[in-house]
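A protein record pairs a chain with a discrete description of its three-dimensional fold. The following entry can be read in just this way.
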Amino acid sequence: MSHVEEPDYKLVAKHGNIEIRDYAPMILAEVEASGERKQAISNGFKILADYIFGNNTSKTKMDMTKPVSNELSEKMAMTAPVIQEKHLDKWKVRFVMPKKYSFETLPKPNSKDVVLIPLPARRFAVIRFSGLADNEAIKLNKDKLEAYIADQKLKPIGGTVLAFYNPPWTIPFLRRNEVMIELDSTVDSNSLETHP
């Protein structure tokens, strides 16, 4: 998944492995899954993968290892990251849809469990880390990100979002994981320091 499309964003500020990013509008495919986090993301991933691999009204498909050359339908590109967010007792698992599609041109899911959601431009505080994204690593990085947000007097307006960029067979130290928290973009960010 090294040449996989990612959402567009503008870097506003950087402090070590923490960034403030302004994301462009995007469309998400979302499914709700219950249970323990890893099982929920696995179940949600399967349902969303089924959608992008052709379980949609136009049978639009994507083959992860080679182009589909004998199909009349176009290929839909896979995007990164896979996004997960807890909502009450359920997890929302999301794929960012390829930028070439608008909400009107995206193939409609056959599964009632898959919902397409257009999102406006938004600002996020993001902390990036490698290794296994187990509950301990997620909590540690979430705490660091929340401390940074408080220290910078930024205003969080959303819950915690987890983003995973690599397939499960990726060597842990090469993995890219992120914890993201949406911010009020009307709060002035010109005072934020940028450090490498």
Summary: Residues 26-119 form a domain with the Multidrug-efflux Transporter 1 Regulator Bmrr; Chain A fold (CATH 3.20.80.10). Residues 12 and 190 are 9 Å apart (CA to CA). Confidence is low (pLDDT under 50) at residues 62-76. The chain has two helices and nine strands.
